[in-house]
């Protein structure tokens, strides 16, 4: 059996932990959360190829914040990512083995690779088994299913939209789970 995990809000507590840290530290730099959410962090921004570093740079420019380094703030925000892993699922991954686990995550390439590295998840999943995709996940899922035709493949994602556009005729060995934070016992 092979396992494909989404990263944000499945293996990594993005909404629950990274975003509050982001808002908190940007507020310390001088831009309050209400302003950020109201003026900048709208859905149309979040659903694009979001880069936290570029977002911080834009905020600093828009609010004339000088004397503070956006890259240092970015690194400070990211420095706690190792505490944001979903350890229940990480424990399952340890049992399953690196060779049996994949990550397919959606978003901007550099920021997502930074989250993967800062979080430490690459200690548990081989880097070559990670796909960061800009839009739909269907091609990456199909590729993994094709590579593992002799195995069942389980894809776990918190957003049903990423399971709905998969052509299951192309992936007959695939089963999907929409993850809602419940405990999953794979073994």
Helix and strand arrangement:
Blueprint: E1 2-5, H1 14-29, H2 33-40, H3 43-46, H4 52-62, H5 70-78, H6 87-96, E2 101-106, H7 109-119, E3 130-133, H8 138-147, E4 153-157, H9 161-164, E5 174-178
Parallel strand pairs: 1-2, 1-4, 2-3, 4-5
Helix pairs in contact: 1-5, 4-5
Short description:
With 187 residues, this protein is an alpha/beta fold.
Largest sheet at a glance? 5 strands, parallel
Strand percentage lies at 5-15%
Low-confidence residue ranges: none
* CATH structural fold name of the largest domain: Rossmann fold
Total number of distinct structural domains: 2
Q: Write out the strand line-up for the largest beta sheet, numbering strands in chain order.
A: 3-2-1-4-5
Q: What is the 3D shape? A: elongated
Percent helix among the residues? 40-55%
Mean pLDDT: 92
Q: Give the count of helical stretches.
A: 9
- Label the structural class: alpha/beta
How many strands?
5
Question: What do these coordinates show?
Answer:
This protein folds into two domains: about 1-15 and about 85-180, HAD superfamily/HAD-like (Rossmann fold); about 15-80. Helix content is about 45%, strand content about 15%. It has nine helices and five strands, in the order βααααααβαβαβαβ. It is an alpha/beta fold. The longest helix is centred in the first third of the chain and has 16 residues, at about 15-30. A five-stranded parallel beta sheet has the order 3-2-1-4-5, sandwiched between helices. The termini are close together.
Descriptors for this entry?
187 residues, alpha/beta, Rossmann fold, 2 domains, five-stranded parallel sheet, 9 helices, 5 strands, 13% strand
């Amino acid at each position: 059996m092979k396992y494909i995990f989404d990263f944000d809000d499945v293996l990594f507590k993005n909404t629950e932990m990274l975003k509050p840290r982001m808002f908190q530290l940007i507020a310390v730099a001088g831009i309050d959360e209400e302003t950020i959410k109201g003026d900048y962090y709208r859905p149309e921004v979040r659903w694009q190829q979001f880069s936290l570093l570029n977002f911080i740079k834009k905020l600093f420019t828009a609010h004339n914040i000088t004397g503070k380094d956006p890259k240092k703030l970015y690194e400070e925000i990211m420095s706690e990512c190792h505490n944001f892993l979903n350890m229940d699922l990480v424990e399952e991954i340890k049992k399953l083995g690196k060779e049996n686990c994949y990550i397919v995550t959606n978003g901007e390439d550099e920021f997502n690779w930074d989250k993967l590295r800062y979080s430490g998840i690459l200690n548990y999943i081989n880097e070559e088994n990670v796909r960061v995709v800009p839009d739909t996940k269907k091609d990456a899922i199909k590729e993994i299913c094709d590579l593992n035709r002799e195995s069942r493949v389980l894809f776990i994602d918190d957003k049903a939209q990423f399971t709905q556009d998969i052509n299951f005729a192309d992936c007959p060995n695939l089963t999907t789970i929409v993850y809602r934070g419940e405990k999953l016992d794979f073994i």
